[in-house]
Amino acid sequence: MELWAHHNAKALISLDIRTMDEAPLCAAEVNLHLPTLQLAHVKGSPQIVERNEKYIRQNPMDVIAVFFALEGEAFFYYQGGLEALRPGQAVMYDVDRPFMRGFSSGVREMVLTIPREAYRELSGGRDLLRPKVFDFDRQGAADLHMHALAKLVSGTLQDPAADPQPAEHRALELLGLLASGCRSGTGEGYLAAAKACIEDRLGDPALCPAVVAAAVGVSERHLARIFAAENGEPPSQYILGRRLELARSILADPHKSMTPVGTIAGRTGFASQSYFSRAFKARFGVTPLQARRSAGTPPS
């Protein structure tokens, strides 16, 4: 327990930690320190973590934390209230305000911390006085910007060898949108949210730039400017390209060698198999069946 508390204090957040029974603590943590942000993936057996007023005076952190619950129900006590959190929810909170978190069935979560002053710059000078709770992984109910941030944190932790600077910049943009209530922000945050929306709905034939713009909270014209600045192509072409890339990966998958081409077209958002075949050949220079053959999977 002392080793676990010592590691957290140095690598993430200083916490008063105790188990919920007499069983020994089992826990693991992966940490990634970026110039401004700190990221972590945490898992452990049932435990309670706390920062009360006395503990905070002795161990000030001056950071805002975002906790992304991946598994297990949890409670979050703070001055003035209680939040019951389920997997797929994130809570944003100033850790120098008293709180207690409990994990009766164990914990698996991602954590992001940002210095309080950096957060205040993003929020327009506003302090975080109460916890903000967001859904980041519920169909139809997720906050798109928090959903994009969760994907970004997960991908960065899984591939720490990649250049983290673009990921951190995009994460800060998303945090700015979340902290300010989406009233400010540059294209980076909106672009990340738009791409997350597109990835989640590639199989939906109704997906189009207007749908993406409405989900992100910008005009269709502004969305087009954001994509042009980043990718040099309009959102419609980006959506088409991602659908075709997904279709090509399915065609190359030996476990899906018996899936008809028409079915693949439908699963990747194409209403017409003939249009899918034409678009596929225009992009890759071969038909879907030729792509399947060249990948070594039987045609269907």
TrEMBL record:
Gene3D superfamilies: Homeodomain-like. It comes from the Bacteria. Residues 192-294 form the HTH araC/xylS-type domain. This is AraC family transcriptional regulator. The keyword Cell cycle does not apply. The lineage of its organism: Bacteria, Bacillati, Actinomycetota, Actinomycetes, Micrococcales. Keywords: DNA-binding, Transcription, Transcription regulation. SUPFAM superfamilies: Homeodomain-like. InterPro entries: AraC-bd_2 (IPR035418), AraC_XylS_family_regulators (IPR050204), Homeodomain-like_sf (IPR009057), HTH_AraC (IPR018060), Tscrpt_reg_AraC-type_HTH (IPR020449). SMART domains: HTH_ARAC.
